[in-house]
Amino acid sequence: MLASPALTGAHSFAASVPGSLSIPLPSVPAPLPTPARRAVLSVVAKVKVPTPQDDRIARHVRLRKKVSGTTERPRLSVFRSNKHLYAQVIDDTKQCTLASASTMHKSLSKELEYSAGPTIAFDVRFAGGSTKDW
């Protein structure tokens, strides 16, 4: 039997083995062919880490599965950016916004100092709603 240079080193040698004996050789996994290797690497390259925006959207979707606003008890939606605050009172059964307030309005931003809570509560009461459930 002739041993391969990969297993023995640089030199090959001949050895005879009786027919009744078998010598187990270590199994070396075959390298992936080039197209398969490219396919594996392309899948690995497509794996992406979620961004903070993706995390925010996932939280929003998870919450919206559980929460919906009704006419008797509307949903309060608040979005806070680095610069402004936006609040809406939403009736999901009619798919309409009952009231909204934002610090984008010049008078509100100076008056409320990034707090639109009292203004949106006033708007809801003015529209005929109730704020006792908040």
TrEMBL record:
GO terms for molecular function: 5S rRNA binding; structural constituent of ribosome. InterPro entries: Ribosomal_L18, Ribosomal_uL18_bac/plant/anim. One of its GO terms (cellular component) is cytoplasm. Keywords: Ribonucleoprotein, Ribosomal protein. It comes from the Eukaryota. Coiled coil: none annotated. Signal peptide: none annotated. GO terms for biological process: translation. It holds the Pfam family Ribosomal_L18p. Belongs to the universal ribosomal protein uL18 family. PANTHER family: 39S RIBOSOMAL PROTEIN L18, MITOCHONDRIAL, LARGE RIBOSOMAL SUBUNIT PROTEIN UL18M. This is 50S ribosomal protein L18, chloroplastic. It comes from Panicum virgatum (Blackwell switchgrass).
